[in-house]
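request received
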Amino acid sequence: MSGDAQISRLKPGRRTDIRRENERAILEAAEKVFAEAGFGGATMQLIADMAGLPKANLHYYFATKEDLYRKVVQQIFEIWLDAASSFDDAPGPVEGIGAYIDAKMDISRTHPHGSKVWASEVMHGAPVIQDYLETTLRDWTDGRIAVIQRWIDEGKMRPVNPRHLLYMLWATTQHYADFGHQIQTLNNGKPLSDKQWQEAKASVKDMVLRGIGAI
Amino acid sequence: MSGDAQISRLKPGRRTDIRRENERAILEAAEKVFAEAGFGGATMQLIADMAGLPKANLHYYFATKEDLYRKVVQQIFEIWLDAASSFDDAPGPVEGIGAYIDAKMDISRTHPHGSKVWASEVMHGAPVIQDYLETTLRDWTDGRIAVIQRWIDEGKMRPVNPRHLLYMLWATTQHYADFGHQIQTLNNGKPLSDKQWQEAKASVKDMVLRGIGAI
DNA sequence: CTTCACCTTGACCATACGGTCAGGAAACGA
DNA sequence: TCGTTTCCTGACCGTATGGTCAAGGTGAAG
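response:
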């Protein structure tokens, strides 16, 4: 566990804000703790401490640990889907896939905890979000495969397997969040700088877009 | 937890074999349980049940849960390093990187649990194998970067950033193990067939090798 | 001010977990 | 056969954890 830093939590006056603000602080703390310790290793006490609340107060807002975890995972899934829109309304793979890589790399940098929670959830067999995988994710995947296939048919890129292209996009971009600690260690223990993130994005886009013959 | 299948454990007669056989069964069970539940979610009782031994017997061979976990992670790291030799004594990127992708994809198929344990360990900040990252892995990485740079200088591939190429190789190949459940779900719930694994390997190699201008 | 719904929290409980231990069984060497 | 080392295991222990509860505090509405 690296950071003991407490989540900032403003004391709101208005009644409506109390709930929203506390739920926000709890979810933010939970995302961090679940990411750093895993579901089994996370404790409600630790989340409570990081959110700056007594443990009993957590159970007032979230009945069980599973409830809290479910909310965290759902939140992340929504962010994933938002980024996915980069894919749409693009004339070709250079713009569409390029924007998608940009968006996903940005998420890896700004939401590393969320990415790890998602990875952990999937690695453990997706006990909580299995239905999302079978519905929303599958539909989204099928749709993007159709788009890629269209680009191939239009001669805008080489005839690669669209499904494995998607896997490569997910793997490569999320790697910078999920394995961020390893990358930081190999970067002499220092987090990637702005310039290094730019270099990472450029490298990924360059290799992928050339790999599919889009440039 | 998907599989309750007990690890096969032969009852050996000879004294020497008892230790080896039991340690093997425990490590095999532990790898599976740690992968499916994470370190925090795994219990010694569950590992004992899967190994077909009383819990107290586990503590006879491995003093603590951390000890057992450490052994599991080390075992995986050795497998990683063995595969790395594919990189060496290759005349160029097509052979070297091609063989490396083959080897790592094979490991993702044959040792999915190990890959997940490794991923989980790194995601949690590598509390156990931090020193490996800073020594063995860093040295190996630097060496391969030098090899890739030589290939670039010799005009055998485009001048990509060798470090980000390595990250892409790791990410893409390990994705098929770590996110195997997601891939299986998107494959109508069925594990990838032999033919589909061949297709995956070919796709990855094709996109990567073209992406770096080696073919 | 009164009322009431909502929020807060220290104390508490049952359970499950990692780990211990003593005593017995089994393998080995002489 | 006997002694010694290694292996086996049921019973047990202290602790930490998820969750509960009852009593008290606090903001808003009339």
